[in-house]
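Quick one:
INPUT:
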């Protein structure tokens, strides 16, 4: 047996024995030993094989599977530029502690810096974004794969394959008697107890809950008994609806200023929420990522797991103030009738059927859901909030949907165009992609850049493209929505296969003006 075949089969065997269920592969020559070995395992029913031509979208697709299953997912590519295309997804995985097992094929080390084809310095190419790295040659093997490191984020294995790259025969006997040795749980120190004397505290929950389970965060919230602000209002029915909207008022912010704030995860969506946190005398942060990527995070007290709670009863008058402004904001937002991105977010959030799996892209869509959705439960939400990029959103949503009966994704038009190659493959996946089309970078019209000379050229970037025609070229069924009734009907319609719904909204400047009008009305609540 060749050295490359032996190395590939040994690696794949350990992956199978770890109970890993899915692998994502991009075609290439140097990674052929791995591709063939994984294919043979898939024909035995030992693993599900996904193929993606574009390595960048392949890595985000694998990230989506990892998010949906909370299991490690190998993603496999050939040498050269293919490796570099993994970097965006690895950064997202690193900043959200997702278990990507990155396996890159390489030429033998002696060919580096010699001008050999498709050969570059792949060793440690991802720097500190991975929790573990190994540069492995066939002669240096065997070794035990560092799969336990995946419990805290991505791992990179760079495998040096020598020719011949194809097996000498088609035998699959090497797959006989595959055992299962589940990856050991990643253990942390005990969290301890959170003691406080504060009766005027607020709990703020970041969109990804720091990777903590919905059930555990809900239980912690109930133990604390404080007013709750959730960046993801679709997961916490008891959260104060529309806090990011009514806290834009300086007067309301001053009246509701807390003594203590507990933050679970990161607060990355709204300046108004971060201003509230800054007013507190004491800030407590709960986030496992302080053990990995956020080690310099500042707070008066820090926990890397949910602590036990010892807190007095909350000031009922203080709670009533919060409820008053949340109710007033709810009434105001319910009265929005103008066809706008705010109305679209409100109606999508309320119309989603229970048990829907939802992916929300970064930029305006996720902020509009936070601000204009009424608090509810029954929705399983996902988003790429590690680094909050708009790249790879289609592919991440597809990866998530591949692990569910169906899913819905809400994207901005630029997020959709940015990851258009994610639509190249047609697996048996039920995903409805809802694109908010305002012809460009709508979020910039709501920031201080608005109105500067050259705004349209460097920020607005109008694409002037027909998104329906583009999606149709990829074979997607498409629908255009232009009003509230059409939107409600489309969201209620069952998800069947891969489809696109283009929601045509007013231009970006009109939307920015509408948002300003809403914020101004908050002052008179």
């Amino acid at each position: 047996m060749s050295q490359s075949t032996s190395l590939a089969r040994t690696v794949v065997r350990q992956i199978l024995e770890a109970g890993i269920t899915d692998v994502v592969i991009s075609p290439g020559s140097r990674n052929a030993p791995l591709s063939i070995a994984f294919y043979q395992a898939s024909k035995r029913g030992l693993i599900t094989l996904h193929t993606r031509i574009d390595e960048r979208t392949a890595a985000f697709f694998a990230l989506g599977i990892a998010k949906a299953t909370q299991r490690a997912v190998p993603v496999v590519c050939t040498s050269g530029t293919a490796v570099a295309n993994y970097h965006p997804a690895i950064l997202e995985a690193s900043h959200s502690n997702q278990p990507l097992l990155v396996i890159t094929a390489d030429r033998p080390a002696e060919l580096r810096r010699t001008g050999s084809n498709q050969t570059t310095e792949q060793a440690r190419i991802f720097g500190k974004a991975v929790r573990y790295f190994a540069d492995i040659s066939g002669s240096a093997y065997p070794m035990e794969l560092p799969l336990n490191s995946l419990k805290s984020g991505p791992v990179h294995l760079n495998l040096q394959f020598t020719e011949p790259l194809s097996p000498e025969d088609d035998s699959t006997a090497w797959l006989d008697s595959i055992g299962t040795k589940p990856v050991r749980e990643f253990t942390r120190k005990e969290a301890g107890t959170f003691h406080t004397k504060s009766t005027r505290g607020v709990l703020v929950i970041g969109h990804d809950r720091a990777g903590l389970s919905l059930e555990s965060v809900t239980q912690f919230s109930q133990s604390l008994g404080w007013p709750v602000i959730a960046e993801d209002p679709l997961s916490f029915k008891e959260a104060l609806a529309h806090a990011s909207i009514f806290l834009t008022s300086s007067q309301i912010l001053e009246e509701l200023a807390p003594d203590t704030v507990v933050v679970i995860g990161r607060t990355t969506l709204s300046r108004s929420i971060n201003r509230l946190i800054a007013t507190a005398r004491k800030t407590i942060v709960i986030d496992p990522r302080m053990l990995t990527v956020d080690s310099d995070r500042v707070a008066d007290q820090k926990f890397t797991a949910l602590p036990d709670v010892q807190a007095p009863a909350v000031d009922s008058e203080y709670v009533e103030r919060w409820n008053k402004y949340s109710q007033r904001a709810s009434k105001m937002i319910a009265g929005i009738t103008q066809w706008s991105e705010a109305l679209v977010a409100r109606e999508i959030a309320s119309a989603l059927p229970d048990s829907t799996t939802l992916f929300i892209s970064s930029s305006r869509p996720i902020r509009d859901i936070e601000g204009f959705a009424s608090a509810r439960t029954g929705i399983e939400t996902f988003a790429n909030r590690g680094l909050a990029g708009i790249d790879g959103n289609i592919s991440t949503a597809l990866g998530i949907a591949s692990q569910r009966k169906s899913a819905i994704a809400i994207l901005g038009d630029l997020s959709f165009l940015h990851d258009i190659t994610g639509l190249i493959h047609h697996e048996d996946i039920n995903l409805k992609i809802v694109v908010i089309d305002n012809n460009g970078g709508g979020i910039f019209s709501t920031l201080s850049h608005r109105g500067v000379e050259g705004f349209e050229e460097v920020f607005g970037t109008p694409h002037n493209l027909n998104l329906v025609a583009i999606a149709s070229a990829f074979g997607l069924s498409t629908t255009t929505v232009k009003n509230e009734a059409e939107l409600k009907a489309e969201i209620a319609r069952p998800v069947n296969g891969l489809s696109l719904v283009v929601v045509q909204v007013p231009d970006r400047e009109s939307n920015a003006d509408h948002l300003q009008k809403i914020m101004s009305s908050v002052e008179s609540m």
